[in-house]
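Troubleshooting entry. Yesterday's outputs looked truncated, so today I'm pasting the complete records for two proteins to confirm everything comes through intact. If either block looks cut off, that's the bug. Protein one:
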Amino acid sequence: MARKKKPEAPENHERWMVSYADFITLMFAFFVVMFASSQTDKSKARMISESVEKALENGKSVSIPPVVAKVLGGTVDDKGQGNAQMRGPGGAQKAAKEEQPTIEELMPSMKHLTQELAEEIKAGKLEVSLEPRGLVVSLKQATFFPSGADTVDSGGFSAIQKVASALNQIPNPIRIEGHTDAIPIHTARFNSNWELSAARAIAMMDLLADRFKVNRERMAIVGYADTMAAASNDTQEGRAKNRRVDIVILSEFALKSEPGKKK
């Protein structure tokens, strides 16, 4: 008796999808490696290569892993990472270079003020520093203001005159910032440290304008109260450092965030 012939297995018409998926995966790897080769940073290229290799070994779909997206410059979270691919090869490096603050124009003024105020700096009455926002002259409250008051002590006029002389030699805008410690204040004149810090900044502006002829239109007033502490408020020394008025000669970098005058 003849054996019954087994029916042939039906042909699989979807085998092409496997080849297609492999092709897409290889194309993705090719373009990522091509992009990496155009970057000047070899360490980033190595990170991309390793990430692609891991993705292929684990059989993942051809979606860009977060670490690759971060290296390529794509935004992967709300921290603003990336978008460097929009700037072309080397975009991350160019973006960082473009955002570097430029404060070289204030170096001569920094040197001049440091020399002119050497005695006051040595005595701890004030500090002069160069920051990304500009040249900062920090006036200690103990020298320039009575405790809890906004009247500038005449004993500090000579130092302020030296600062005003430097201000009148450069065209940069000026921001005067009032700061206090964290101990609450409530007097007949001031209900809070906010009022005290703003009042001291205004008093300094009036002195600079009326007595030392600094143009008012160049100056702006900010009252920070105790929100921008320079030291810890847990110690007496720290609180003394926090009670200050900062005269800031703004740099070009800081001016980018300042409101412009409407024509």
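Protein two, checking that the full record survives here as well:
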Amino acid sequence: MARLTVLGSAAAVSDLAHDNTHLLLQGDRGTTILIDCGSNPLPKLVRMGLSAEDLTALILTHFHPDHVSGLMILLMQLWLMGRRSPLPIYGLHHCLQRVEITMQAAMWDTWPDFFEVQLVRLPEREDVLVLDCTEFRITSWPAAHYIPTIALRVEIKPAAHVLSYSADTAPTPIIERMARGADLLIHEAAGETPGHSSAAQAGQTAARAGAKRLVLIHYDVRRTPEELAAEARTTFDGPVEVAQDGDVYEI
């Protein structure tokens, strides 16, 4: 059974109880994938019993600070903790080009014995294979955000279940197709503004996609979970939850 841990649940403005949205996907056979890196996740990973070598991949949905600002310190700390195995980082060219510029500014080429970072550029189209391993098959789908952004569909092979993650997006039929029949849809609820979705719109997407369960994430932390869930239930009849930092979802 796969596990998805919420390392952060807030939209761009965080608080003491809610870090910026990033997630950790783990399988039973050692696959450990970090999704986004809006703040330094390493202390949380260490608290979960993971070492510098345990992270097998990183997927970046887009290059906004609340999704990538922790990357520089993460890579440095993994290096200082002794990581030696390569780390693949998946994302769109728009994102990874800026990652390279950022890391060049940090002069990562001068870090002695720095492990290999493999930047894997994904085309911006529907149903693009990101990675396929014994535990997961992950595809990327274009979201409707301010800048090029990808949503993710994760097929959990041992359980034959599907997890879908909207990333930052306004409502769009592409996200509905990405989430078709998902056992668990993790959908942003930052508000009905350009490039984002409200809780009601997230519910509507879940209903149209035929998702079985909806979890709201990337929301305004000034709103209560009860308020957000109630709004989503106006458009979605299935189970609705509001993610909190530290929550674990087994799929």
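Both blocks look complete. Sanity check on protein two: The chain is about 25% helix and 30% strand.
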